[in-house]
Amino acid sequence: MLVYLGTDLLAAWGLNLEFGVAGVVNFAYIVLVAAGAYLYAVFTLGPPAAMGGFQQYIIGARLPAAAAVALAALICCGLGCLIGVTGLKRLRADYQAMVMLVISILATTIVGADTGLFNGNAGLSLIPNPLASVDPARRGWYYVAVVAVICTAGYLVLRRFTTGPLGRALRAVREDEDAAISVGKNVVGLRLAVQAVGGVYAGLSGALLAGFIGGWSPSAWEYVETLALLTAIIVGGLGNDAGVLLGVVIVPVLILQGVQFLPQIESAPQLADDLGWIILGLLTIAFVFTRPQGLIPERRPRHGMSAVPADTGVPPAEARVPPDEAGAPLADSGVAALATGAGSAGLAGIIAVRTDASSARADPGDGGRAPILNVDGLVKRYGGVHAVDGATFTAAAGGITGLIGPNGAGKSTVLGLVSGFVRPDAGRITFDGRDVAALPAHRRARLGIVRTFQLPREFRALTTIENLLVAAPGQRGESAAGVAAGRWLWRRDEDELTEAARGLLRLFGMAETADERAGRLSGGQKRMLEVMRALMAGPRLLLLDEPMAGLAPALAERLEAACRQLAGAGMSILLVEHELGVVERLCETVVVMHQGKVISEGRMAELRTRKEVQDAYVVG
Amino acid sequence: MTALLALAACGGSSISSSTSSAGVTGAGTINIGVIGPMTGPAAEIGNLMSGACYAAVLDVNKAGGVLGRKVGCTLVDDTGDPADAVPNVTRALATTSNLNMAVGLESNTAATTIPLVNSARIPMVSTNGLVAYDKTTDTYFWRMTPSDDQNGAAFVAWAAKKGYRRVAVVFQNNIGAQGNDPGVVAAVRKSGGTMTTNITIPGDASSYSSVVARVIAGKPQALILAGDPQTSATFLSQYRQLNGGAVPPVITSTDSITPAYFSAVKKVMGAGYVTHSMYFVGSYVSPASHAFGIYKSAVYGASQIKDPATILGVGVIASIYDGINLMGLAMQMAHSASGPAYNTDIAKIAAGVPGAVAVDSYATGLAALKAGQQIHYVGVGGPIHFNAFHNSPGNFSASGFSASGSPTLLGVIPGTQVQQLLPG
Amino acid sequence: MSVFIEAVGFGVAAGAVIALGAVGFTVQFGISNVLNITYGALMTLAAYLGYALLSVGVGVWAALAVAAAGIAVASAGFNRLLIAPLRRRGTGFVGVVIVTVAAGIVIQYCIVAIAGPDTVSYGQQAGGTIRAAGFVVTTSQLIIIGLTVAAMLALHLLLTRTQLGRAMRATSANPVVARGCGIQTERIIDVTWLISGALCGAAGVALAITTVTFDFTLGPIFLIYMIAAAVLGGIGQPYGAMLGGLVVGVGTQVAAAYTSPAYQDVYAFGLLILMLLIRPRGLLAAGTASARRLAG
Fold first, then answer.
1. In A, which residues are within 8 Å of B38 by CB distance?
2. What's the DSSP call for residue A378?
3. Digit-coded pLDDT (tens) for B167-222
4. Per-residue pLDDT of chain C (296 residues; tens, 9 = 90+)
């Protein structure tokens, strides 16, 4: 029946939002659908005694159908959040999945056993049909119409979440949670939001189903249902709403067709049924094997710019930068040109806004330059090992500070501690005069502490330019207002950001890769992407974690030049690096660590002579 | 079946149903909707229901049909799951021509399917046991079999008859049990017996040891044990294990007097126990009556029926045969196959106006009607007394398994006796 | 008190079967990072294999051994054929789960198609009943408990004393590094699946012996208990799974002894949920940081 198609579609879309787009594995999803169904039932059934008392249940209000459906969806939204909260425990994703599975099973067991709650295993029946006033002969078609309308509305609303900046942010979270945090995305908040919305869809689906069937019992929502929905989504196309529609239609049809082609054996009518299941199973396996992205895979958005109105005053800055392709040396004029470019669209504009604030704060520190970062007595233990054992140093604003030391000295841990990915056991971290030790990583990123990773963590399924766009902070398109208002609110922001991103790509010689999936880039390109992405996040303190490692000389040169220019434009950089040559050329101050402690601080040339530094390195 | 896959079910199952309809589905054939689980875990019940229909159709057509038209069985698969039942029944109602009567509509899906049939104004004789329908206002609903709480009371009545004063009540956690329990509890109290334990167990578990221990501790004389074959077999075998080989007699519902139950329990308890210590209580069908003889020939005569003995042993199923006869005669009397036209005649024929001729088969009833007489139908299930809610619980019987697994009658419990044990 | 002791005894017996299965399940997770839903269907297959052997007169314990061996091979084959290739292609966690569900369905319905949907029975294999110190156990339950303990001991010795065991632990902890150290990870993974498959098969037959009567839904229903036990003890931790099995088994039986048995699962799972709130990694999970966290 088309009604089932519609309700399955709603449920599948919700699950697709959670899993396909945002990467949240929610094996308990069907519980939300069931909740919607039960809630609708108990909101419309009226008190148990009035119906002869043959079934028991809680609540029992006699609300009009539309109100009941809405209320059910709303409560499911809250339940979705509740389920999301358990995910806050930061368990490994697969472990989380199993917990969800167990929760789903638990829910069926409890509801089945507790007869007072929703009438136990017998389930609820005689649930009023929302279209009870319609003539029964027509009722089916009217219901189809109602469901179709809700589906269409649902689809339009869904698009607000799955496309545009918010969709992009969700995908980034799916691809690499930590990288998303490093550019300031509130992963926890986004996840909760997604589960809330997914909950609404699930609740709607359940409520509509219950109203149509007139009955609902635990047998309708075993834990395998979630898996069946996931199968439909995966077959149709993960992350793609149209694909999900296809999947929801195809998977049941596959069984139907599969069974049709089998001869009907009178004496064993069950056999055809069994074979149908077997065929479904085999087809699913074949599908996941050969075409895991589904029939209609996730679309790769092309980023053309919409027409820029003449009055925004954005200068054609690109015109001054020579069309740069791979191999051409970095043009000084390029960065300078962008630096002087007016308007917030320019790269320098992004940096300038940030560095203005920090250079304005003229604190009497050492050498007249205010320290932007103050690390005091940081300690981090892993079991019995002291990865960081009382590290203390400062990084001056507007310059490049090097952090060096032999392997195992604790350098990366320090970066992790400063950026918020690692919780310190003791010590203080002061950023621009503010104690940030208690702030979560994504908040620090928003404040301006942006890090890169030792192994490039690109958002693989996003295109190169999307990788950059998603990093930009404060995008209105990602907020609730942006979703509600739609494209017209954030279109201009998007255009400006796109322009800035393209400029950045040109600068680093990767303009032609803009619309390619980041996963396809070469190692060196990924490293550059990492740095560019960090820049797009508008850092005041950029933490670079061994950026030169494994880079081809040409690219390394380019990166070095970029760092110099950024520092010249006023950005503060903390550079962890093994290549001592690079450190010497770029950094005014260098901090040396050994076995978790800071053993020396000063200019590179000076440090080379100090005995403790030599000892630490053994090799010069 | 999953809700997602219900989409497939709505296409697939209906197709299988129409290809296996019996009788000539030619123009003008009156179709009898047999709404039951033809596939799925409860498929046995569906099989029994269709069997009764085939038998009735055989007899009706042999006597000349209804209003000169043949009748045929249209099987509608409710799969035992409301999610699939609703679309299948809706589709059948919309697409089957001349669907003028319905039978079956069992407990698992009744609450969702009965409203559909009732709105379509098709008279139906339902075998469901839901207590909800003790007091229903659905005009087209007719029930000639007892509801679950009455069945429960009947269990106790039989226990009392056999002299078992201390009974342990163990029910599986499903619809039927939830319905039986209140009846059992009330009846035990009223009969003055003792209920040593009243426990609900989850189905198909691997270990009931703790529950068994509790039951044993109560020292019951008999067990009222309602569950599916697997659950019952596991429970009994673990009881036997823990009680040193001794297991009290079991009283359960006629629904369980099936080959699957027989083989499952026999394998763990042995033939002796199964044939001597198990009682199946349910609707009474007198094997000695003339009507039963006619029914029996029909069941053995219908070519589609594979296991006639089992069909004969389950009293509830006979009500389907009676129901079809009754509705057919009502159609004849009203000179119309349309539900609204003949529905009230059902009650008239069942009650019989003063001076009506007693008939016990379709053939004799048809003949009497053609001769211009009023008739009073008393069928395989005995006299029918529809109350204000179209319910006629009837009498009860206790049966057992013979060595070969076929049902044998052991005793009768008058309906009045059972009603006394129930409140109100 | 005697009721309690009795219930604990029943719980231990039930828990032994759960533990046997849960350990195999969790080991598979540890080595291949897969939530293997097919596990339940394979247990069912083992049970039916045992039934077939019993019907031709093979003794029940011999049948258990044969079935365990058979499922061991089937499991290893399953990994080679499906799981490993999928992992190589980088199929996500959920994709692999879906495949295991599908494979489970295929196996299950093949069983139905061949053996029919009705129940089959092992008949009374329980042997005599022994009553001692307030406990009531059957001989076969004792044997199963013994079997579980022996299997655990063997596993423990294997993991800690042999080179193979060390290689298994290394591969489980970090396959990349393990390969780098010269361990033939492919072979180790095969062996692990063989061992866990044997446990799966043994658990399947043991379950059938305890339940006596069963049908094709045997495994999948039981799977829930094993997952719960595995999660309770800490995923990937064999000893944890054993402990978890005991807790679930005893929990359900004690609950059934004192309250409504219909809720017995609820109490057992309730313990699980409580555990997850307090200590999400499970009872015996290792304290190291998760792989996705950035190491310092």
1. 269
2. E
3. 999 998 877 777 788 889 889 988 888 999 998 888 878 888 889 988 998 999 99
4. 778 888 888 889 889 999 999 999 988 888 888 889 899 999 999 999 999 998 888 888 898 999 999 999 999 999 998 888 888 887 778 788 888 888 998 898 888 888 877 788 887 766 777 787 778 888 888 889 999 999 888 888 888 888 888 888 888 777 788 888 888 888 888 898 999 999 999 999 999 988 888 888 888 878 888 888 888 887 778 888 888 899 888 988 888 888 888 777 777 777 777 776 677 667 776 543 333 232 22
Domain A337-617 indexed as CATH 3.40.50.300: yes
Residues of A in contact with B94 (CB under 8 A): 140
Query: Comparing C-alpha atoms, which of C196, C213, C195, C192 is closest to residue C47?
Result: C213
CB contact under 8 A, B2 and A225: yes
- Of B4, B38, B132, Cβ closest to residue A252: B4
The contacts of residue B396 (CB under 8 Å, 6+ apart) are B146, B151, B154, B157, B158, B281, B282, B283, B284, B412, B413, B414, B415, B418
Facing A121 at nearest CB: one of B10, B19, B174: B174
* pLDDT confidence of residue B182: 84
Domain limits at B189?
A: 148-284+398-421
Are C95 and A288 within 8 A, CB to CB?
Answer: yes
The verdict on residue B316 lying in a domain is: no
CA dihedral angle for residue B115, residue B121, residue B122, residue B125, rounded to 10 degrees = 50
Q: Chain B: nearest CA to C109, how far in angstroms?
A: 13
For residue B358, list its beta bridge partners. B376
Mutation for B interface: A109, A273, A275, most B CBs within 10 A: A273
Residues 43-72 of A with CB under 8 A from B: 51-52, 54-55
> What's the predicted TM-score (pTM) here?
0.80
Domain boundaries, chain C: 19-242
Q: Using an 8 Å Cβ cutoff, are B326 and B369 in contact? A: no
ipTM: 0.79
pLDDT of residue B329: 92
**Contact between chains at C3 and B214 (C-beta distance less than 8 A):** yes
| CA A223 – CA B29 distance, rounded (Å) | 45
Contact (CB<8Å) B178/A121: yes
Nearest one of B417, B329, B312, B413 to B378, comparing CA atoms: B329
Say if B126 falls within a structural domain.
Answer: no
- The dihedral of CA C41, C46, C51, C55: what is its sign? positive
Verify whether the Cβ–Cβ distance A219 to B39 is below 8 Å.
no
- Give A241-250 pLDDT, tens digit per residue: 888 888 888 7
d(CA B72, CA B69): 10
Cα dihedral B39, B43, B47, B48, rounded to 10, equals -150
Whether B142 is in a domain gets the answer no
Residue B210, domain member (yes or no): yes
Supply φ then ψ for residue B100, to 5 degrees: -110, -10
**C-alpha C271, offset from chain centre:** 19
pLDDT grade, residue A270 (50/70/90)?
A: low
Which residue of A29, A86, A98 to mutate against C (max C Cβ within 10 Å)?
A98
The ranges of chain A annotated as CATH 3.40.50.300 are 337-617
In CATH, what number is assigned to the domain containing residue B239?
Answer: 3.40.50.2300
Identify the DSSP state of A134. S
Q: Has residue A323 got a pLDDT over 90?
A: no
The pLDDT value given to residue A261: 58
Q: Is C82 on the interface with A (CB under 8 A)?
A: yes
Q: Does C184 touch chain B (CB under 8 A)?
A: no
Tell me the average pLDDT of chain A. 77
Residue of A nearest to C34 (CA): A94
